[in-house]
Amino acid sequence: MTSAISWIKPDETAKEALVRILTDRPFVVLPPPLHRLPLRVGNVVEIVGPSPSAKTLILTQAVVNCILPKEWKGVQYGGLERAVLFVDLDCRFDVLSLSRALELRITGGSTKGNKHEYDKELFAACMRRFLYIRCYNSFEFLSILKTMHYRLQNERETQATGVYMLMFDSIGAFYWMDRALPSSSSGNNRKNLSLQSVAETTVQEIQRLLLVHPMLVLVAKSASFSDKQSISEVTRNSGKRQNTFDIRGPGNLTYRDYMPSVWQSFVTHRVLFRASDGNGKHQRHPTFSTEWLLPSVKLSDNFTVNDDGLIVIL
To answer: Which sequence ranges form a coiled-coil region, renumbered to this chain (predicted)?
Structure first.
């Protein structure tokens, strides 16, 4: 009887479990315009929008916020002081833009008053937390994913903390190349590389990484807008259901998710960015609007990009 009671006795109370979970995986509030919903490691956030809609800039601002320390030599920066792994699939990421954004945050150039001197030591410490990988096709991308565990493990051993954010820009970069690949199986019982197999392997590898290396995943993806007639034709010809959203895009077109369903179900949060109808008082700069599709909540913002390349909420 005593052994049975000891077997069913809980190791911790619900309160203790909740405190432990929130301590190990606390909520993360990203910089605007991604600040509306609290996120935590393990979430996969998809940033969707046509080109241009400041998707890469939003990722850059999130990188700066993550690699900056919370405090440095008595100056409060409010950063996370954690490493970021940025996987560039578009092969267009500008590291110079990242360095300029980081320098603005260090010197306080984004605020009125409270200017600080440029600190080279702080800049170097922050850039050491930024890891960058470039891929030119799906073969390289899948190879990187399969070997990423060892790189993340090495980073954890080198620095005090491991990689906190994993970013992909953009996840649909090789869509048309993969779609042109044959989908039939070869005679040697090996699965050929195809759009579906790439998506399945990508999801499996990221899931394995998150089990060992808890990270927040941010993914940029180009938006596809089509009229309902063309969507019906694609669905009829391919025999596969296409996910559409009743969202008016340019020319009253409908937003269509072109990624395979295995990827769509893997995403936990999705936010759509698009050009706003009017510029209002900020006529010198284009304005953009946000809309959360997953979860579907009535939270939206309008923002613009100023001359310094910083996002300004209107």
So the answer is: none
Average pLDDT over residues 281-308: 83
Compute the distance between CA of residue 26 and CA of residue 19 in angstroms, rounded to an integer.
10
Whole-angstrom distance, CA of residue 101 vs CA of residue 117: 15
Is the separation of the CB atoms in 118 and 106 below 8 Å?
yes
Sketch the domain layout of the chain as residue ranges. Answer: 41-181+192-313
Q: How far is CA 300 from CA 13, 22, 71, 303, in A?
A: 38, 27, 31, 10
**pLDDT (mean) for 159-175:** 91
At residue 225, φ and ψ (nearest 5 deg) are -115, 130
pLDDT reported for residue 257: 87
User: How is residue 179 written in tokens?
Assistant: 């779609």
